[in-house]
Amino acid sequence: MEGLYSFSVGLLTACGVFLTLRGRSFPVVVGITLLSYAVNLFLFSSGRLKMDGAAVLGASQSYADPLPQALVLTAIVIGFAMTAFVLILAMRSRADLGNDHVDGRLPPSPKDQK
Fold this sequence. Notes:
Order of helices and strands: HHHH
Helix content: 55-70%
Mean pLDDT: 83
């Protein structure tokens, strides 16, 4: 289970970095969101993965650590708010500049390269 979990974190991180390095604003927003999901999974795994671990005392012999769960829940809320804010900024820059490139400049057209 730990191997699959770490593979998922690595895949989300790789896809997030790839999308963050793109030239347009929407893939950058999606890449940052994927990176935040990878960090959330990493934080959640820091509490040791347990099957059938109860979060309530007295319900089971093994207990789950509630601190990583609280950290991830807080990070989800903050990440959602920041994603909405960055998406509004991307939409505003698209409206003001007329394009959605991250640096605000248009890439050279194929006619200009010849």
